[in-house]
Amino acid sequence: MCGRYMLDTNAADITSEFDLRTTPSLEIKPRYNIAPGTDVLIVRVAAHRPTVAKVRWGMVPVWSRDTKMGSRLINARAETVSEKPAFRGAFENRRCLLPANGYYEWQIKDGTKRPFLIYKGDGRCFAIAGLWERWQRGNEVVESCTVITCEASGRMRDLHNRMPLLVDRTDYNLWLNGPMKKKRMLELSKTPFATSLTMHPVSTAVNSPVNDSLECAAAVQPN
């Protein structure tokens, strides 16, 4: 699963990376321990152009009685996302990208869970595939999202059997705008980009979402 990630970039870089028409007016500040239940930055299509928004991480389906279900739907499996009632409508019509500079995964070794940060070797921003939804009951409106996961590839298998579905820059427009079938989506996870990430162990400070500082992402000596 994917339960934590980081974003350490600025509005200008987001504008360039995702080919936005205008620089985002939203405040974009470094976050080193982004956790479910918090507002996260997404890129989605509006008026036929990519734009940014902030939504809650944890998808609330349109048919849900309340927003509590969101805490259980932080991830969606690529293998079944086009079929599950909670996700299939969004998969057809409301796909998004989550900008990130790295994501965290915990390796279980000798009975101990050890956190690692996974990132591009050049440290640049990349995109995680996601879905977004708009839930409304009366005057209450909640926009939310989920992160799509797939089978781990490359070195990531050493940490966990799952990883976020990463989208290469050349496929941003396809993911946001184009027709998408399950087979094509699963092909995205096999790109060289998704298999060439690097990693390092980090402090257990990242275990608590209360901690959100550079310490969470800093490399530490392996045990």
Q: What does it look like?
A:
The chain has 223 residues and is mainly beta. The protein has one domain (5-216): SOS response associated peptidase-like (hypothetical protein yedk fold, Alpha-Beta Complex), CATH 3.90.1680.10. Helix content is 13%, strand content 37%. The protein has helices at 11-17, 88-93, 172-177, 182-188, 192-195, and strands at 5-7, 31-34, 39-46, 49-57, 75-77, 95-100, 102-109, 112-119, 126-137, 140-151, 162-164, 166-167, 198-201. The strands form 2 sheets. Strands 3, 4, 5, 6, 9, 10, 11 and 12 form an 8-stranded mixed sheet that branches. A 5-stranded antiparallel sheet has the order 2-1-7-8-13, with no helix packed on it. A hairpin with a 2-residue loop joins strand 7 and strand 8 (112-119). It is globular. The two termini are 23 Å apart.
